[in-house]
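This week, study the protein below.
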Amino acid sequence: MCGRTSLFTPQSRLEERFDATAVESLEPRYNIAPREELAVVCNDAPETIDLLEWGLLPSWADPDDAPRPINARAETLAEKPTFAEAFERRRCLVLADGFYEWADTRGGSQPYRVERTDGDPFAMAGLFERQEGNDGVEGTVTVVTTEPNAVVEPLHHRMAVVLASEEQQRWLSTADREVLDPPPASEWHAYPVSTRVNDPSNDDPGVLEEIEPDTQTGLDEFA
């Protein structure tokens, strides 16, 4: 799954990279959690970078009782009522420069940061909904997931769909599951980080720092 991300790439670089202008200032975020805002480029306004709340709320759902899925399986987008209409009509790019996964160890769960080897920002495939006037929530988003590549597989059985540059416009314009594959493992790496990242209030550059696997109990198997 994808349940925690980061986006601290300078706004000017993001705007150039995705050929879109941010609707408001993008503050550096190092530890973004569900129900917080993700930066997105939506297919109904591809010239802008918007901020939508993480956790999809379909337009027909009761906002007080409906689940708010943060992820949607690529394999069943067209079949699941929660995602089917958004898959056909409301696709987006979710911007990030890294995400976190937790590996089970003898000593508990060890967080790892996953990022591109070149450090560049990237676009995850997403679905969105608009909710103008709904209790202050203007829009919501979920991240599409797929089978993991060889970097993420030791950490989790799912990973976010990261779109290649040439696939981004295709995803925005067409409900095409052929682009929803894992990215090449050769372009990615993962490293252990402190359990400070477990607390979303720790949103600072310190959560990015690599730790020695043997500095926390039960991590010798990852050394």
User: Anything to note?
Assistant: The radius of gyration is 17 Å. The CA atoms of residues 18 and 41 lie 8 Å apart.
